[in-house]
Design brief:
alpha+beta, Beta-Lactamase, Heat Shock Protein 90, 6-stranded antiparallel beta sheet, disordered C terminus
Amino acid sequence: MQADDTSIMLPAVDGSLHVAYSNGLSEEMRRQTFAAGERIASRISRDRRAVILNGDVRGDDRFHDLAPLRSVRSSIVYPLCTGDRVLGVLNVNRVAAERKLFKPDDLERLAVLAAQIVLALEVHELLRQLTASERFASIGQLASGIAHEINNPVSYVMSNVQYCREVLAGLDAGDASWSAELAGNLRTALADAEEGAARIRDVIRDMRSMTRNAKQVTAVFDIGDAVNAALRVTSADVRSCAEVTTELDSELGVLGTMSRLAQVFVNLLTNAVYSIQQTPSRRGKLTLRGYRRGDRVLVEVRDTGAGIEPDHLSRLFDPFFTTKPPEHGSGLGLAICREIVQMHGGEIMVQSTIGHGATFTIDLPWADLRAQPWVRGKDPASKGAAIKGRL
């Protein structure tokens, strides 16, 4: 097309347009956002008809009130439509004075490119919707386990509250036999009730964090907090089939969004549970190990499950690739994991031998926890000591 610059503008919820993709545009132009009807592109998108514009557009009745942002020799503005929806606007500009003007033939050639862009945008939107549905589906798969995790501490709290009531009733009746161990028993009962309530709070907090759609805070945090949040959410399923060992060194700082990385570990843990359940004994071991290597933080999730076929390893992170039955997932889980890890400047790797389980390794850039404000939970990992224990 011999264009000096091109751009694709996409609409926001309020109808405004912003430059999402561009080539040849200045930084100032890329940052522009235009309200509905404010500029040529938004008016063309409203009319849903592609146009060729040459020279000063103020001679066109549709745009007589618009002051040009810059001098452009010739332009094609092409609405990207599917059905009754406008997905965006394609702009192709010839800026240099020596350039020829666009002709109707150019408009026809651009129609082919526009059709491909529309297809790409539709696929992107479909993947976004599938990603969201996969995330909520994985949370849904954990629902029964979550209910179990909440129900147990609720019973714990209620029984201890009932005990306190009985003790207080005894005091009201003047029963002196209560006095000997009263103080200690009450303290124990209240501590147990507090522990149960804290457990409920933590599970609900983790679930809310992992299902939240709002823009999330980026900060420096200890990766152990994300691992422990995932363990809490998946605890019932994991405990049903695996002995879990955690070996998380202290001060494993990373920069990012804790809830997003916790989603990665939730997915890896649920996959490990599924793999273990495919073994003859349906029992196995899960080991989570976190450590620092130079300027990198590594977390390994190792299971003793059925393992992965060698032919499948190269395709494991491809969208929609799965060896599971349809009811166990769409094949997007690991693709989403890879996307989240890459968004954090890291990579995810896998090693596996059939019959001997698999090891997934998350490799992320290290960040100094003391260098800037950071997010820390109330997990043992956030207290500065290395964690070595079993669930």
